[in-house]
């Protein structure tokens, strides 16, 4: 009885530490109050022990102490021991530091790298190899791009760079990749673009970490020369980490079938390697375990000692090391200790998706796998039952976090894990064996070829599974309450009965209540009142907006588009739609064919059904041609004066100029007014001043105006603003863009007409709701709780 209570207290204390760490990171409980509370709980615990108080009092004091320690750890993580590098943003500086191992990437335009900075100098003295007395010690990393040079063979030690330190730019949208948080977790604090003459190699020698990084780069190069294409890139990512060379399509395919965790080094890989080595070594003596730990440590070094690798290594060793004892309590204690140690070392990992998924899946294997394994072995052969139980446990345990980050459920995930994971793990082992045997008469390259031959058909199968419309289902975002109720339900269904005192009747009642709560929350979210809502999506220097009508019908106006291979459709717009639980679009309207408005349209059309497509009357651009190849939507070419309806919401085409073959697409940009009983919005695309003047005599007022051409001085003439008379003006614009948008003259005209101005470069995504006559505007960068 006492043993069970102790284990329950340890688990509760670990959860309290996690909550405290979150409170500290969120600045809800600062460092000094956390330390004072910790001291009070410590005194209470000491007094309770001396007075031989009851278990409940001692447990409460210990759990409170763990919460305060977690808060103190999280608050301390926000304090920099040295001056942060971002203090010098916008200044011409000279940075002294070392190149991060494995960060050097060569492109046709030049070389990019990540510099871990040790010192900064702000004066303009001559560049030298020694650290000057005027340099200031700093902490942080900077992303450096060296224009037009391949420096991959030259960078072996310390580096000095000189240039203007610029701020990192990110997109602030719900549903997508949180690059701002990722930069914080990686301690990236700025970026710099320089010429080759502004980089100097200092006399510092190559560190051991850089030497191992060079060894890993050589292994990666050998593999990808032997196995070219996506197969080689996937094998390199699976064995050495990173996504170099892995296409966006391959990553989407793996995510769609629930295998995204296999594309980079994770706990699954470490577990496979550990199991394989244990089979080879057979005898589990102290020497064997020391050798095993040494091999795994060197493998982690090859992978760059990145946080996900370290977490996977420690968690897997804890799980397998504790597995010598068949008792759950001992394994649970070791797991809890590892989690607390990891967060003491770096509290910010609590907010990292990799840590969260690794934590939940390992916890699931500890607490839910035994029951699920027994259930599966009743009906299936032992081997298949074990594989199925592991896969099912991992997916059930991580489900709320998978929904939180991807907003989709993989319907083919179980089948893919059951049938494909063993073959992918075999390819992984062949590749790792190839690394070890590279010096042996080409045997290593032969193993690479075998791994590539095995992986090629697997990639085709994964793509086929992902391309089916049944592979995934969009579920939207889950409220925090849903996640808590879901985990309680898992504990009641698959947790060991030794951990609670519920009778069978009480357990069934609680299970029923949990199911009712989950269903009730889902029904409320589906049928609650929906005001007319407009989402202006942050796509940088481009336009994209989503209109959701009171009847929950959807209109997407423009899809953004950036230079290079960054697809705003697949990486920004689609995650935003999935976050909102949108599975199809009733209408897609493109104002004109310029890339910054239509660049993401093809990816959107490829992934979700579109009922109606409205295009301007102009020569179709390459982006519109790609869109037409990927959709079966009803095609409509806009004409001035026509109206379309989405339930009780009208889409009025105010202006639809006919573009000629030699005219600028901006001259054929649509001006559209969306109106319902709740309110009205005017969308102008990149309409020119001439178009606006022609439309001014025909348009009715609109409460919200999407400012034309990202706020350029040639837009938003006074006659047009007087006709629209907006309360709120939204400028969709990229941060620090080279065009100088928005123009000062436009901002002055908007102020003169009394419009409140909101900008996506400053606010991120904007959510505007029409509640009767009141217009409410929320910024995702500063008001995430309203999204």
Automatic annotation (TrEMBL):
- The coiled-coil segments of this chain are none
Question: What topology does the record note for this protein and the membrane?
Answer: Multi-pass membrane protein
The record's GO CC annotations read: plasma membrane
Matches recorded under CDD domains: ComA-like_MBL-fold (cd07731)
Known Pfam families for this protein? Competence (PF03772), DUF4131 (PF13567), Lactamase_B (PF00753)
- Predominant location of this chain? membrane
The Metallo-beta-lactamase domain covers which part of the protein?
A: 541-735
From the record, give the transmembrane residue ranges.
33-50, 57-78, 254-279, 286-302, 357-380, 387-406, 418-439, 446-466, 478-496, 508-524
Keywords for this protein: Cell membrane, Membrane, Transmembrane, Transmembrane helix
Task: List the SMART domains.
Answer: Lactamase_B
For this entry, list what GO says about its biological process: establishment of competence for transformation
Q: Which InterPro entries match?
A: ComA-like_MBL, ComEC_N, Competence_ComEC/Rec2, Competence_DNA_uptake, DUF4131, Metallo-B-lactamas, RibonucZ/Hydroxyglut_hydro
Q: Where in the cell is it found?
A: Cell membrane
Q: Supply the PROSITE patterns for this chain.
A: PROKAR_LIPOPROTEIN
This one is known as DNA internalization-related competence protein ComEC/Rec2
């Amino acid at each position: 009885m006492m043993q069970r209570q102790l284990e329950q207290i340890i688990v509760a204390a670990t959860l309290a530490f996690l909550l405290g760490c979150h409170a500290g990171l969120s600045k809800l409980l600062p460092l000094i109050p956390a330390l004072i509370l910790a001291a009070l709980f410590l005194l209470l615990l000491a007094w309770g022990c001396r007075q031989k108080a009851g278990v409940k009092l001692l447990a409460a004091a210990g759990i409170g102490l763990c919460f305060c320690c977690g808060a103190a750890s999280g608050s301390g993580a926000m304090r920099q021991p040295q001056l942060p590098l971002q203090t010098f943003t916008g200044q011409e500086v000279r940075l002294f530091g070392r190149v991060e191992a494995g960060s050097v990437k060569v492109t046709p335009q030049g070389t990019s790298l990540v510099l871990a900075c040790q010192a900064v100098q702000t004066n303009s003295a001559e560049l030298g190899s020694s650290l000057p007395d005027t340099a200031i010690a700093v902490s942080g990393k900077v992303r450096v791009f060296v224009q037009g040079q391949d420096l991959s063979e030259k960078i072996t030690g310390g580096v000095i760079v000189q240039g203007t330190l610029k701020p990192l730019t990110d997109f602030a949208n719900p549903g997508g990749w949180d690059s701002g948080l990722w930069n914080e977790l990686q301690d990236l604090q700025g970026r710099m673009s320089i010429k080759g003459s502004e980089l100097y190699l200092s006399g510092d020698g190559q560190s051991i970490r850089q030497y191992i990084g060079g060894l890993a780069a050589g292994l990666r190069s050998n593999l990808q020369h032997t196995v070219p294409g996506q197969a080689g890139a996937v094998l390199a990512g699976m064995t050495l980490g990173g996504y170099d060379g892995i296409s966006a399509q391959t990553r989407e395919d793996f995510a769609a079938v629930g295998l995204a965790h296999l594309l980079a080094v994770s706990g699954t890989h470490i577990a496979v390697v550990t199991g394989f080595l244990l089979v080879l070594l057979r005898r589990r003596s102290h020497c064997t375990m020391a050798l095993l730990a040494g091999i795994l440590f060197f493998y982690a070094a090859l992978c760059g000692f990145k946080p996900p690798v370290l977490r996977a290594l420690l968690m897997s060793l804890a799980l397998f090391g504790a597995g010598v004892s068949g008792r759950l309590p001992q394994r649970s204690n070791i797991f809890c200790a590892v989690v607390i140690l990891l967060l003491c070392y770096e509290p910010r990992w609590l907010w990292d998706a990799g840590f969260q998924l690794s934590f939940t899946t390992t916890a699931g294997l500890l607490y839910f796998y035994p029951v699920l394994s027994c259930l599966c072995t009743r009906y299936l052969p032992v081997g298949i039952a074990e594989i199925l139980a592991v896969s099912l446990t991992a997916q059930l345990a991580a489900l709320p976090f998978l929904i939180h980050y991807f907003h989709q459920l993989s319907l083919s995930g179980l089948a893919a894990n059951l049938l494909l994971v063993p073959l992918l793990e075999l390819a992984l082992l062949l590749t790792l064996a190839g690394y070890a045997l590279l010096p042996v008469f080409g045997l290593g390259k032969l193993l690479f070829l075998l791994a590539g031959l095995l992986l090629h058909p697997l990639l085709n199968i994964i793509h086929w599974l992902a391309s089916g419309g049944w592979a995934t289902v969009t579920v939207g975002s889950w409220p925090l309450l849903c996640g808590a109720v879901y985990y309680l339900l898992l504990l009641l269904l698959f947790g060991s009965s030794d951990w609670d005192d519920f009778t069978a009747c009480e357990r069934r009642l609680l299970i029923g209540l949990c199911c009712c709560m989950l269903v009730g929350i889902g029904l409320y979210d589906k049928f609650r009142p929906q005001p007319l809502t407009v989402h202006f999506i942050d796509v940088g220097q481009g336009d994209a907006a989503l209109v959701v009508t009171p009847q929950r019908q959807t209109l997407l106006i423009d899809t953004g588009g950036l230079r290079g291979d960054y697809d705003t459709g697949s990486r920004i717009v689609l995650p935003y739609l999935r976050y909102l639980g949108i599975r199809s679009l009733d209408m897609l309207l493109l104002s004109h064919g310029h890339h910054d408005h239509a660049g993401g349209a093809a990816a959107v059309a490829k992934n979700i059904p579109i009922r109606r497509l409205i295009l301007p009357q102009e020569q179709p651009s390459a982006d519109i041609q790609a869109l037409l190849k990927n959709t079966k939507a009803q095609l409509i070419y806009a004409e001035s004066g026509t109206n379309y309806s989405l339930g009780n919401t009208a889409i009025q085409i105010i202006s639809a100029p006919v573009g000629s073959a030699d005219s600028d697409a901006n001259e054929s940009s649509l001006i559209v007014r969306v109106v319902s009983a709740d309110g009205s919005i005017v969308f102008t695309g990149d309409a020119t001043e001439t178009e606006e003047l022609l439309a001014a005599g025909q348009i009715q007022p609109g409460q919200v105006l999407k400012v034309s051409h990202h706020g350029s001085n040639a837009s938003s003439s006074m006659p047009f603003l007087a006709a629209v008379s907006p309360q709120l003006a939204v400028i969709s614009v990229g941060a620090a863009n080279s065009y100088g948008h928005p123009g000062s003259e436009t901002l002055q005209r908007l102020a003169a007409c009394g419009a409140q101005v909101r900008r996506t470069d400053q606010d991120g995504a904007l959510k505007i709701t029409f509640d009767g006559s009141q217009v409410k505007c929320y910024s995702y960068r500063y008001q995430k709780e309203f999204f």
